[in-house]
Amino acid sequence: MRSTGAGGRRPLLLDLFCCAGGAAVGYHRAGFDVVGVDITAQPNYPFEFHQGDALEFLAAHGHEFAAVHASPPCQASCTLTAGTNQGREYPQLIPQTRAALAALDVPTVIENVQGAKLRRDITLCGEMFGLGVIRHRYFELGRWSTPQPEHIPHRGRVAGYRHGRKYDGPYVAVYGQGGGKGTITQWQTAMGIDWTTDRAELAEAIPPAYTEHLGHRLHAALRDRQACNETRCHAPGCRTSIAQPTTGRPRRFCSGACRVRAHRARPKS
User: Fold this and answer.
1) In 3D, which of 216, 244, 228, 241 has the Cα closest to residue 11?
2) What per-residue string of b and e applies to 69-106 under the rule 16 or more CB within 10 Å gives b?
């Protein structure tokens, strides 16, 4: 899949802390080829996968990609940490991830749960996409932007038991065990995920609809970025498009021959 990024039809996106690929599938549906990296093996990840430290991989290969998405571990910020899991130690990699992405010159996305210390450039919810989960997620965007979709009011409660009382509602609780939680099939349907049946993977995933929405807009941002970074050859009779480097002196000619032709065409003093 890597070979289609630079010279192929689809831009190449790096998916850091990828887990089972909820974000990756959305970006792929939006027109990207995706490469995932995670510290643990992800046998159900549906695209090219590399096991290893995500930030080390970013430092070594980040320049090879047109865009980068990162979903750093979120246990330090989630609601369970403040309640059931209080007192446990969890990694907090958002600051390191933000700093590493800032060193790149490509559009980036950091995704995390409610409560995470992210800029809330975009907040997405399952109700925006007609899904059977609420699952609010924050997205911090780097070097690009897109409007916030309207946050549609929720239609009711999340079904299941709360403090010994059973509630009905249009949404499924895709996390944990017991307590009236839905079946795996219900979880898959609610999330829009069909390539894994693993409860832990489903519980950690984001619905692909979220990144499909962002991916279409990121794709457009990349096209705009490329257009702004292109000029036409200055040689007489040549209008070849020139992709400008991100650093250094701008290019005025598409080839050495055009440079010579332009020099010869200058008025003689």
Assistant:
1) 216
2) bbbbbbebbbeebeeeeeeeeeeebbeebbebbeebeb
Instruction: Give pTM, 2 decimals.
Output: 0.81
Q: What is the SS3 assignment for 171-196?
A: ECCCCCCCCCCCCHHHHHHHHCCCCC
Structure tokens at 69: 């998405």
Q: Residues 36, 41, 45, CA angle at the centre, nearest 5°?
A: 45
Q: Give the mean pLDDT of the chain.
A: 89
pLDDT score, position 266: 82
Q: Which helix (H) or strand (E) holds 260?
A: helix 256-264
Average pLDDT for 205-210: 98
Q: Cα 18 to the chain's mean position, in Å?
A: 9
91/76: higher pLDDT: 91
Average pLDDT over residues 245-253: 76
CB 102 within 8 A of CB 136: no
Assess contact for 94 and 116: CB atoms under 8 A.
Answer: yes
Q: Which helix (H) or strand (E) holds 122?
A: strand 122-124
Our measurement of the distance from residue 267's CA atom to the centroid of its chain's CA atoms, rounded to an integer in Å, reads: 52
* CA geometry: angle 166, 168, 172, nearest 5 deg: 105
- The widest CA-to-CA distance across the chain, in whole angstroms, is 93
CA angle (200, 13, 230) in 5-degree steps:
160
Q: Indicate the pairing of strand 160-162 with strand 137-142.
A: unpaired
Tell me which of 215 and 268 has the higher pLDDT. 215
